[in-house]
Design a protein that fits this description.
An eight-stranded mixed beta sheet has the order 10-9-15-3-6-7-14-13. The protein is 35% helix and 13% strand. The protein has 23 helices and 17 strands. The chain is an alpha+beta fold and 662 residues long. A hairpin with a 3-residue loop joins strand 6 and strand 7.
């Protein structure tokens, strides 16, 4: 019955989204009221008899279907009385966090220890000298976060909020902040007694928000587990953790606890059995181990000052604030705003990634843009450089799948190699220049300016292997190279173009896409959109602009390519593909175009290739907006890159259907 309630609850998401898109406020409110009743019934289920529960579920199902007649009013019935009982029973103060039972543990037999921060190497001739560090404010911005992500080869998801942590600094604004272009932080020593860290929201292109909290366990809990060799308490390692889902913390409490972000992925942790902090003598473990959720700290400090506040954690990441367990909506302080985007209300974000950095990394990115530094490979990195690392580790005796995903197996192989190479205090699981050199690898230099312009952020190969990652959005992997299709491979609209121009046309598109480092399906979708699915070399723009052909070459564009629109119109479609390729190369060079939106931008607005999909291309009040206002899907006076590519996306979906795909 509980599963039935959960299924019913999830079924409300799609009609609520449709009502929102249609502007039907009344229907949205009706569905929200039903969702609220389901949530209350899920809480009450433990106290309601099975027969009564079945009756209430039947009533709610009828309400979902829109049949209101002959139904009892739930607000005055037994549920309201039980709700009050629930509130009376479960209103209680916070208690210390306890980690979940171990699941699928991966660890080494012998205890191992963390590596010290390597000393900066002496500059070599020809190496750029970093700008000198300076005093003053540390203002963390969207650009700095892009730099931190790209330097570690982490995918950037610009479609939603990603949660991040900074260990060893706190926001200057203790109250928590809203999304903005930048916020000030201050470095603080890691403290196991009071909150000295920062957790944040980042929505690329829309800003970041910072909240005071802690990324380390509470000292009293650490001390209590020393006799058990540290089992039951942990400190999370730096890296990218792919999946945190809104849910109840703790598992044993369920709805009698509080809403948090639950760890649903592999993580790296340290355990200490020799003292009450985490240092160079503590062992690593990796896997779906500790139940390290992100939850309320249950403290805000004297006068709401988190810098003086303790916190409740045995390894979870915590955000300053208080609440009453079992009472939804009772959150106070920064945690209230932190958890708001991830509640189970209709229309909210249901999951996120969590990325943890050290404060010194953020400081370096702010002060010097990491000039003269290399990229780093660590837990959560993706791409060909990780493939190179995995091959090198296999030559040292590891048995890794070469997939470009720095996951648990690669982490264990790296720390094992570091221990053998640098001694028992030499493993941190992060591959920098020293570890790379020992493996016979050379890491490319990090390039901040290239990163914030939308490039890979380094001078070497980049991007994940085909099929890597946790999202269908190819643009999450900056610089990624889509897989190369073979001649004869079925593609979007392939059946249409084969009938018109023969298989030679399709094979040439596949070959061009391989050289352009884009998906042939994306190239076909763009040509379908530009030609109205005709795929003819002489099709002209209906508005009279003079644009002609497969990608609607403008007259000046054609001249720049050494031809004219008149000559293009006289070519065969297969011959005109040479000029399609020449145009793309002229505007994107050797950069990869992993996303459909980038392929389309190469035709519509080449300056937008590589920027975030949330970037505003045209704003109301400009001629460009007036010419393209039909693309403003939400009618907010702004046309984003994603909106501009929306109609091409529809073409792609159409081209993949039976009768066109082939």
């Amino acid at each position: 019955m509980k599963q039935q309630l959960l299924t019913m609850r999830r079924a409300l998401e799609a009609p609520w989204a449709a009502a929102k898109a249609a502007g039907n406020t009344a229907e949205m409110q009706r569905l929200e009221a039903i969702a609220k009743d389901i949530d209350e019934l899920r809480i009450d289920a433990a106290l309601i008899g099975l027969a009564q529960l079945a009756t209430e579920v039947t009533k709610i199902r009828a309400r979902i279907d829109g049949h209101q007649a002959n139904l009892d009013d739930l607000t005055g019935g037994p549920l309201s009385r039980i709700k009050q009982q629930i509130q009376d029973i479960f209103a209680q103060t916070a208690e210390e966090d306890v980690t979940a039972p171990p699941v699928a543990v991966t660890t080494r037999d012998a205890p191992v220890v963390a590596a010290p921060t390597p000393a900066a190497p002496a500059p070599t001739p020809g190496t750029p000298t970093p700008p000198p560090a300076h005093t003053g404010q540390l203002v963390l911005t969207d650009a700095h976060l892009i730099g931190l992500w790209r330097r570690s080869l982490f995918p950037i998801d610009d479609s939603r909020i990603t949660v991040f942590g900074l260990r060893g600094c706190r926001p200057v604004d203790f109250s928590g902040t809203a999304l903005a272009a930048g916020h000030e932080i201050v470095l603080t020593p890691v403290d196991y007694q009071v909150m000295k860290c920062t957790l944040g929201h980042w929505h690329p292109g829309k800003g970041l928000a910072l909240f005071p909290g802690s990324t380390v366990p509470y000292g009293a809990v650490v001390a209590s587990k020393r006799a058990n060799n540290g089992v039951g308490v942990n400190q999370m390692g730096r890296g990218r953790y792919s999946r945190y889902v809104g849910g109840w913390h703790k598992r044993s409490e369920g709805p009698n606890g509080h809403w948090a972000l639950r760890q649903e992925c592999a993580i790296t942790i340290q355990r200490t059995g020799d003292d009450t902090d985490f240092d160079l003598n503590d062992r690593w473990e990796v896997g779906r181990i500790a139940g390290d959720n992100i939850h309320c700290a249950f403290h805000m400090g004297v006068d709401g000052n988190p810098a003086d506040a303790k916190f409740s954690s045995a390894g979870c990441q915590t955000v300053a604030g208080t609440l009453r367990k079992g009472v939804r909506g009772s959150e106070l302080g920064p945690y209230k705003d932190f958890i708001a985007p991830f509640t189970d209300a209709l229309g909210t974000q249901k999951e996120t990634q969590y990325v943890l950095f050290g404060a010194e990394e953020a400081q370096m990115m702010i002060r010097t843009h990491c000039a003269g530094k290399t990229v780093l490979l660590r837990f959560g990195s993706f791409g060909p450089l990780v493939e190179d690392l995995q091959r090198a580790l296999n030559l040292q005796g590891a048995h890794l799948k070469v997939d470009g995903d720095f996951g648990p197996g690669t982490f264990v192989a790296v720390t094992d190699f570091q221990t053998r190479s640098f001694g028992p205090s030499g493993d941190d699981g992060i591959v920098g220049p020293g570890t790379a050199a020992k493996l016979g690898l050379t890491l490319p230099s990090f390039d901040f300016d290239d990163a914030v312009r939308g490039g890979p952020g380094h001078t070497g190969p980049s991007g994940p292997p085909a099929g890597a990652g946790t999202s269908d959005n190819a643009n999450l992997f900056p610089g990624a190279v889509p897989p190369v299709a073979s001649p004869g491979t079925e593609i979007a609209f392939g059946a249409v173009t084969r009938a018109k121009h023969g298989q030679a046309f399709n094979d040439k598109v596949i070959a061009i896409a391989g050289r352009l480092k884009c998906d042939p399906n994306h190239l076909m979708a763009v040509m379908a959109f530009e030609t109205g699915e005709r795929f003819t070399p002489d099709v002209k723009n209906a508005a009279g602009s003079g644009a002609t052909g497969l990608i609607q070459f403008m007259p000046k564009t054609a001249i720049g390519l050494g031809t004219t629109t008149a000559k293009l119109a006289q070519m065969s479609a297969i011959d005109q593909l040479d000029f399609v390729e020449a145009h793309f190369k002229s505007v994107v060079g050797s950069r990869a175009m992993p996303a459909l939106s980038d392929v389309y931008m190469a035709v519509l607005l080449p300056s937008a290739v590589g920027i975030l999909d949330s970037h505003v291309l045209f704003a109301k009040g400009t001629r460009a907006y007036d010419q393209n206002k039909g693309l403003d899907k939400n009618k907010n006076g702004k046309i984003t890159k994603a909106e501009a590519a929306g109609k091409v996306q529809l073409k792609l979906e159409l081209g993949m259907k039976n009768g066109r795909f082939g």
